[in-house]
Amino acid sequence: MFVKTGDQVRIIAGKHRGEEGKVIHTIPSQNKVVVENINIVKKHQRPMGMGQEGGIVEKEAPIDASNVQLIDPETGETTRVGFRVEDGKKVRYSKKTNNPL
Fold first, then answer.
1. How confident is the model at residue 49, as a pLDDT?
2. pLDDT at position 71, please?
3. CB-side neighbour CA atoms (13 Å) of 6
4. pTM recorded for the entire structure
5. Maximum alpha-carbon separation in the chain
6. What is the dihedral of CA 15, 19, 22, 28, to 10 degrees?
7. I need a surface site. Which of 16, 17, 19, 69 has the fewest CB within 10 A?
């Protein structure tokens, strides 16, 4: 997966196209990511245990990783991600600037 938790991304497809946010959580087995304040859904929550209330809770739902594109921290533009081996370690790099991310 080319996106990691904490990366700044821009949504490139769907109803939230053009919006930006930080990746909160990744789900590599499903190729999905959860982006902060994007794809908010309402979940009807049942009370859990004593003293907790139920109700309608708003939370971020996962979106497919193919619908997001990484923002290069140096230029602030979207970029594709490549992988290469440097000093025996696999490193992500920006395809536009050829700099490690």
1. 82
2. 95
3. 1
4. 0.84
5. 55
6. 30
7. 17
What is the Cα–Cα distance from 73 to 96, expressed in whole angstroms? 12
pLDDT one-digit tens code per residue, 27-67 = 999 999 999 999 999 999 998 888 888 899 999 999 999 99
CA separation for the pair 2, 93 (Å, rounded)? 10
Nearby residues of 64 by Cβ (< 8 Å), 6 or more positions away: 31, 32, 33
Instruction: Please check whether residue 25 is in contact with residue 33, taking contact to mean a CB–CB distance below 8 angstroms.
Output: yes
Query: Which residue type sits at 60?
Result: E
- Check residue 6 and give left, alpha or beta (phi > 0: left; psi -120 to 50: alpha): left
Phi, psi of 65 (to 5 degrees): -65, -20
Structure-block tokens of residue 32: 């999905």
